[in-house]
Amino acid sequence: MSRFAFQTHRLSYSSVSHLFLKKKTCVSLCKRRCCHNNSGFALRGIHMDVTTSSKVRKLSQPQHLLDTVQIFIFDCDGVIWKGDSLIAGAKELITQLKDLGKRVYFITNNSTKSRASYLKKFRSLGLDNVDAEEILSSSYAAAAYLTSIHFQSKGKKVYVIGEKGIEEELEKHHIAYLGGESDKDKVPDMRPGGKVVQDSQVGAVVVGFDRYINYYKIQYAQLCLSQNSECLFIATNLDSVTHLTDAQEWAGNGAMVGAIRGCTQKEPIVVGKPSPLLINDVIQKHQLEPYQICMVGDRLDTDVLFGKNNGLQTVLSLSGVTTIEKVLSDKNKILPDYYIQSIADLLSKNI
């Protein structure tokens, strides 16, 4: 898997501001010619969206995206489902996009499931038109990253803070590991002279979401990263909160990563969103330009940033953790191209 990133290009506001003396204008450089309705227009090589009342537009005409996008990438938690509840319109939209010949991928920072396990969840929610190869999980990203650096050939092991999803993906990639679910009930010996003894062959610590994280796991990871030469610190994601149920937000993997970062003073390699690792794989596979891909998600700091950093079109769904007030706040610097209330707003009424 390639480890390069596409850069988002911007044209300075001052270079075209004389065209819009009385309007707030968002100007982004792109590689296409495009057509717009009365709220925007196009010059050769420059995509310009003009708005007089807000920083970002509500998507009112999904046909524009359908005309320019070949691949749609959807976040799962907060966009396709919340907890164990399917968000209205999800199945219909997936069917519609595939009938139009569009490619669809699902990307999630939740590492508790492997792609095979995620497929079972899609099926349980009635989404029988999804294939395992279309699911890009952060557990898969961790195993794929280790494979890309030829970790298997080094004879090293992975210590896992996380759940079954990471273990299953490591097994599929033939990567030796320890920890994970087998350490969920372990308690370190903290009597006088007591200590935890770590395996010196651990060459990477992978930290994913772990509902059974404990002090033993934290100490074991700390010892590996502090004492094992060139041991890698890999995080599946840095999400602050997650959707375990549809009743409330729950502390996310940022809490687990923060514990290891705090005791080692090391920064992790992040393989999930907004890292470019997964999108690079998709771009190379389909030989497309980044602007022909659209990222649809519910988080500004992962989904939208993931899209912006890699030159994708971006749509923020307000069905998850982000409110419109946060989007329009002066403190927010991460702006999607469009926002929608939910995935149902992407359904084309012209079909």
UniProtKB/TrEMBL annotation:
Its EC number is 3.1.3.41. The active site is at residues 75, 77. Substrate binds at residue 273. GO terms for molecular function: metal ion binding; phosphatase activity. One of its GO terms (cellular component) is cytoplasm. InterPro entries: HAD-like_sf, HAD-SF_hydro_IIA, HAD_sf, PGP_euk. Divalent metal ions. Mg(2+) is the most effective. It is an enzyme of class 3 (hydrolase). It comes from the Eukaryota. Mg(2+) binds at residues 75, 77, 298. Its cofactor is Mg(2+). It holds the Pfam family Hydrolase_like. Keywords: Hydrolase, Magnesium, Metal-binding. Gene3D superfamilies: HAD superfamily/HAD-like (3.40.50.1000). SUPFAM superfamilies: HAD-like. This is 4-nitrophenyl phosphatase. It comes from Galdieria sulphuraria.
